[in-house]
Each structure stands twice: as C-alpha cells, then as structure tokens.
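seq/struct pair 1
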Amino acid sequence: MDHPIVDNLVAISGLAPDRSRFLLSMLSAFPLAFLFSTLLHPKRAGPTIRHGFQLAVGMAFCYFCFKLQLLLLLLDTGMCYILLLVCPASIVHIAVFVWAIGFMSVSHIYRMYTDYNGYTLDFTGPTMIITMKVTSLACSVYDGMYRKEEDLNADQKTLALRKLPSILEFFSYCFCFTSILSGPAFNISDYNKFIDGSDKDKDKPEPSGVLPSLIKFLTAFFFISVTFVLPSSYEPFFGELLQSGLVKITGMIASISISSVGHPSFLQMSNGGIRTLFSTSLVTSISCPL
C-alpha cells in the first residue's frame, strides 16, 4: 500500500506507483510555484526565505518520489560542496566533474545491473540534473576565482563566481523544486538573480506567466492523452508510431515552439505506459505575478 492519493491515481489511471508519485509531484509544483511567485515574491520575502522554500519543497518531492534514495542525492551534492570548499580553484572544476560524473555513472551501472531494461523512476533522474548543475557551478568558480579577467569571454565574465555560494544557496540551487525532478539545468548566477529579484527590469511591468504555463500544460496533456488512447485503439499502426518516437518528438517540438517565458518545455513518452517529464518551464513560467 502506498499513500491513499497515489493508490487512487494508480487505480484510476493504471500508472505504476513510481510514475504516479512523479506525476503528482509535478502537478503540485504548479500551485506551489504560484504561491512562491506571489506570497514569496522578492518584494515580500528575502533571499534566505526563498532559498529555504525551494530547498524544502525540492527535498520533499525527492523523498515522496524516491524515499530513502534521497540520501544518495544528499551524498552526491554534499561531496560536491566539500570539494568546492577544500580543492584549490585551479582544479576545482576537474574534481567536481570527476566525482559527479563518476557517481552518476556508478548509479546508472548499478541500475542496469539490478533492473536491466526496466523503466522504474528512481534517483538516477535527479542525479543527471545535479551533475549538470554542479559541473557548471564548479566551472564558474574556476573562471571567477582562478582565471584572469582578460582571459574570459563575455559569457564567462557574466557567469563567473567571485566567491563560493553559501551552503543554503548551493543546496537550494541543486534541489530547486521546479527543476530537481525533470530539469532543466541552469547556471547558479541566473538562479541567484531569480531568487533575489535582480533579474527583473524595474522599469517595465513584470509579464504574467499564467497563460504560457497553461498553454504548455495543455499541450503536454494532449500528448499524454495520445499515448493512452491511440496504442490501445489503433494497434498496430499507432503502436509502431509511438515506438518509433515520432509522437515523442512531435510533442517536444510543439512544446518548445510555444515557449515564450522561461526555458523550453518538453515531455517524454514511452509505449506501454507513460513517463511524463514536464520541464520546469511549465512551472517557472508561472513564477511571475498575475
């Protein structure tokens, strides 16, 4: 027996429990993002509170979806932060990359060994997101604390970190609830600007993210429905179509083409069930006031 809500969703939809937990987490991110963008707007809440909210909700999502595998994600990120603290700036990007890619690789190899050709949603998904985040962060530290200013290009100057992030900033960045489950990854400089509100143009009104989010959500819902209805109703043609990945690609293109706020959204589908990956643009695009 799982949580009653999960059990009901499994009974109604036929989704496996792991996918049901994942879907519930992604759907709950919408109202939470709306609350974050309104009640915890930078004008009403400081960076510490906003970082804390992102971290708490992100870790709650991970525990709900992956249970004690959350500890493995904490091991991964914790070791990366220790490396940031103890390694010289000249090699920090190499050290963090070796650890992160090594941890991710071992995790995937173990998954293949224990669940070969399976499709269980586990901590290896967030591990890939974390790997992208911590390696980009380490490179920003290397650029900002070791390399000379004149050796950096324009993008590197913008993203370079002149000091290490605090432990709260680091873990909030890694476990940001709008990206920890399905991405996308982004640079910590952009994330900190989003948290403290410095990314906003004070001379212009903030755009609403409600309509772009709704359009993306409905697009994702449409293609999710396609994967449920067509394979069972029109086999073998649509089963082969889905197996070929055409609908998956079409869904990604449609979602990306309508993205007007935040990062492009995407969803991933599979034959014989479904894995929904609403990109955080479905969530972060609503992180603007009405």
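seq/struct pair 2
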Amino acid sequence: MGVSESPPGGERTDTKLFSSLLEQGRLKEAKQLLRKGLPDDVPGAWKAILDMRTRDSPVDTASIYWDTVDTCFGGRDLEDCVDRTPGCTDSTHTPSYSLDKNSRAQVCRLVTCLAYNSPDVPYCPLLFPAAAVLRTHLSEEDCFGVLCMMVDPPKDVLYFTQSKRSWDIAGKVLKPLAERFMKKHISTLDRVCGRDLVEQALSGWLWWIFEDLPFCYLERIFTSFLLEGHKVLYRTGLAIIKIFSKQTSKSGGQLASDLAAGGICKELPKFCRILDIPVNELIEAAFKIQRFSKADIVKSTLKIEMELKSRLSFKEDGGRRRSNCEMLSSDAVEEIIAVSDTLSYKQLTKLWSLIPERMTMVMPKLVYSSNDHGTSIKTFYNRSENYEPTILLIKSTAGDVFGAYCSTAWNVRNEQDERGLRQRYFGTGETFLFKVNGENIEKFSWVGEHQDPDEKSGR
C-alpha cells in the first residue's frame, strides 16, 4: 500500500465533522470543508462518501467481490493477477502511485472483477487509476464497493466516461470551456504555441491529473471528485491551464524557453510533474472559477458531439454532403456511421440497396453498439428486441465483417409454438445473411428459394 505525502501548505480537516455533515444532508457545507484541506482520516472520509451515495440501495459488495475473484481467477493467488487488465481499461495508462507489487496486483484484480460484473462498460480508461488511488488507503473489498458506486452512480453525479466515443469527446471539451472561463490564459497559449498544438495538448488533460501531478495533489483532488463528481476534474484542468499560462507569460522565464524548444505537448505534462505550489493554491484556483457548473460541461459536450457527427457527414473527396447518394439519406448516415467505423459509406449504401425497397423509405436508427453499450447479450436484446426489421452487423477479432438482415423482431424468439416450446427459428423469406468483401457485399438469401421439392420434403 502506498504512503501519501504531506501536501505542501495543506491543512487537515476533521473527518468526524465531515461525516456528520453528510449524515445530516448538509452537502454544501461538506464540500466546502473538503476544499479547505485533506481529511485527517482519508479512508474514513471516503467510506463516509460511499455510505452517503449508497444509503438508499445498500449492497453486500464484499461477498460479490470475492465470488467474482473465484470465478475470474479460479482462486485468490495474486500471481495470477499481475499486470492482467480487462479490455475496458487502457493498458498504457496504469499508474501505481507507489503501491508495492502485491497492491498493484490487487488493483489489476479489482478492475478485472469490476469489468466482469459490468459488461455494459466497454471503455473506461480512468477505472485503473481510480482503483489504484483507492487502494492506497482502502482494502480490496472497500475499493470494490466504491468502484461499483462510481461506475453506476446516483443520478445527480457522474464520475467516468464509459465508452470510447465519450472518452474522446471529454478530451476535446476542456478547450471550449477554457475559451469561455479562461479566455485570457488560453489566448496566451494559442498565441505562443499555436492553436492546433494547444488543442492537441489539451486532449490529454485528464492524464495531467491522474498521471502527471504529484500524488499529494491528486489525493486532494480525488477526495473532492469522489464527493462532487467529474466537474471537479474539469475545474482542476482549467486551473492548471491558468497556472501554466501565468508561468509562460513571465518575461525571461525558463518555462517560456522550454516551451519554445520542446512544445506544449511535452512541456505541459512536465510542468504538472514538477509543480511545487501549495496544494491549497491549486484547489483554490479550481474552485474560484465563477459561474462554472455541470450545465456548462453538458452544453460543451453536446456541442462537440454534434460537431463530430457533422464532420462525419461529409465525404472525404471534396466535402460534399452525402444527401443525394443512392437511397440512403445523409441523416441516416450520420445516425449510423457517427458511432461505428465498421462500414465505409460505399459499403453501407451497397448493403442498403439489398434490403426490401419499402424499408429504404424508413429512417434507420442505431439502437445498439458494443462501443457504447457494452457486450452484454441482455443489453443487446433489451435495446433491439422491439424493432422490426433490424440489421445485425458483426466484426470479428480477425477483422471479418458479416451480418444479417432480420425481417422480424428479436422478441419473437420468446413466443411459443403449439406445444408450448420457445421458437427455435424465426424470420421470413426476406431474411438474409451477408458478408463484406472489400467494397462489395455478398448476399446469402433464404435457402428455401433454392431447394428442390425433394430437399423441402426432407427426402
């Protein structure tokens, strides 16, 4: 287990008072107390936040955790867990925060078990860092309880992005927020470094916090993050921009020289790693941003999302809108392609030409994507079973792309025949399979159309 450093210039707050405020529902006062300093009992404060967040839906996460450990690893030997991480994490970002070998293995075990119990979370890069921070103070069981709450939080708080698309969008959101709330400072960086390089540097802002800042800063930030949610991270990112910009603006400053030599993509993370201001100075800078709220994050996120969809609705060869190509409208293309890179536009329009003509007049809607909704078959059925018809598109781990046009709804599988048995097969003669070969789509129609009378009678 890691040992937290004493934060420079930081003070300790009373954990018993903090817990009492949470129990009384005095959340605003509890937030203000945390912003003044690190609790004198960090694990006690984190557990108090967990108790407050799960008060209405308590779950025995400890027994669930160890049952999952036995299922995933076949035992509790830590050697089986070393550097084993699930696909929903980013294997290039697995900080240890001075945890010893066994504690790091426990973090790997934690995130693997969390991923096993959350198949609807396809991509969550902050899961491993959060688990590692928690493990510096909490037992495995308690860490698992907190992580379960963070992945499935109450409605009034959000902690993690949980898909590749939402992660990419989060990386882009800090720049427009800085242009609104840190206009002077972001303008300085744009002028000195160039707008494109600044935008590129800011895309990795979450790693400034979880990988570059010394742990004494992260520990304070994470504690408020646990209580207040993701807006604390955005506030911290904006504060770092402000402090970095001020250092850059100092005439003759070493940072300005380093910036000219190495570029902002290199120097900004380096600046975070060697930051030596009092922790309270960073926290105060973050929470002094006026009129900043979760609504601002939501608004900027939606704007970025719409811009990305808009860009995807243009052709690469000249930027023409895809509105007049074959039978598939531009709105339909935006809906499908904006969340999936499995098919090119040409492949999609060729597939569209194979479905029954009457169905081409209907606006398609993407109802399920493993990138956004995870790999749970239950989730797939819940999201798609009431739609008719549907197109099922699959990409294998080997890169093969194939699928089916399903002419009847998936919920038909639950219907019973005259003997009370569930349907084994369902569909109509319009159902077909297909395989993608380069830019072409190979169609495999209903075999009944090609059987001779002897085959149909089973002779």
